[in-house]
Design goal:
Shape: globular
Distance between the termini: 46 Å
Low-confidence stretches: 5-12
Number of domains: 1
Order of helices and strands: HHEEHHEHHEEHEHEHEH
Strand order of the largest sheet: 1-2-8-7-3-4
Length: about 240
């Protein structure tokens, strides 16, 4: 019911830009340029968790980009998913290219905790992933969302935890249920999330997918994409591209 109400209210209530609050625009041109105007590139958190796949981000998590992500995730401004999905699609393209792709790209979203989804009334990462898959298909790249990751134990709220404590909190928390490995074998796996901070969530997701697929190393394809990453993750790579 809550998700339904958010869908309807977005059509009838006054619209303000999710990035700057400017009226009469869900996302103004200036904020859209911050989200889409950069070149997606490889990012690395410091310290970098063991098992983190190569991660590409569309933008730095600051200013309008930060505001738009929070508006979508926490305030339920669901109409922003399209713009966020376009940014994520750009990061996916940057990470995978077009050479050597066998079958479709399989976008595997990092799952939110059930209580977080219930509180928000929607799953923001999955919604953005679906928008990104649509954007990729419109550009001629076969892609679909394969939401096979599940949390099989409770984890603490990540807010306020440093990198080491986040890794410990998430270690072994995700799994691919029986049968999910068959879905993952149908194309090239790309892990996706809305945001990279310490990399702990993506590293745990990579471990769970690799375990399900019988790989000892990184997730098959070794790729992940996010809408945004902390500015420091971009800075460390400024001269390493």
């Amino acid at each position: 019911m809550r998700g339904w109400w958010r869908e309807i209210s977005g059509l009838v209530l006054p619209v303000a830009c999710g990035g700057c609050g400017r009226p009469r625009a869900e996302l103004c041109e200036e904020c859209r340029a911050e989200l889409h105007g950069g070149v997606p590139r490889r990012v690395r958190p410091v310290p970098e968790p063991v098992g983190l796949p190569a991660v590409y981000a569309a933008a730095a998590y600051e200013n309008a980009v930060r505001a738009v992500l929070l508006a979508h995730k926490e305030r339920g401004e669901l109409g922003l998913a399209g713009a966020l999905g376009k940014a994520l699609a750009g990061a996916v393209r940057a990470g995978t290219g077009h050479a050597g792709v066998v079958g479709p790209l399989l976008l595997v979203p990092v799952p939110s905790a059930r209580r977080a989804v219930a509180a928000r009334g929607h799953d923001p990462t999955r919604r953005i992933a679906l928008a990104a898959a649509g954007e990729l298909r419109r550009g001629g790249t076969p892609a679909r969302v394969v939401a096979v990751l599940r949390q099989h134990r409770a984890v603490a709220d990540q807010a306020g935890l440093d990198a080491g404590r986040r890794q410990a909190n998430l270690a072994g928390a995700l799994e691919v249920p029986a049968g999910g490995e068959r879905l993952l074998a149908a194309g090239r796996v790309v892990l996706v999330d809305d945001l990279l901070t310490t990399g702990a969530s993506l590293a745990e997701a990579a471990r769970a997918v690799a375990a399900a697929c019988g790989h000892a190393g990184a997730v098959p394809g070794g790729q992940a994409a996010v809408v945004a990453a902390s500015p420091s993750a971009f800075e460390i790579n400024r001269n390493c591209q």
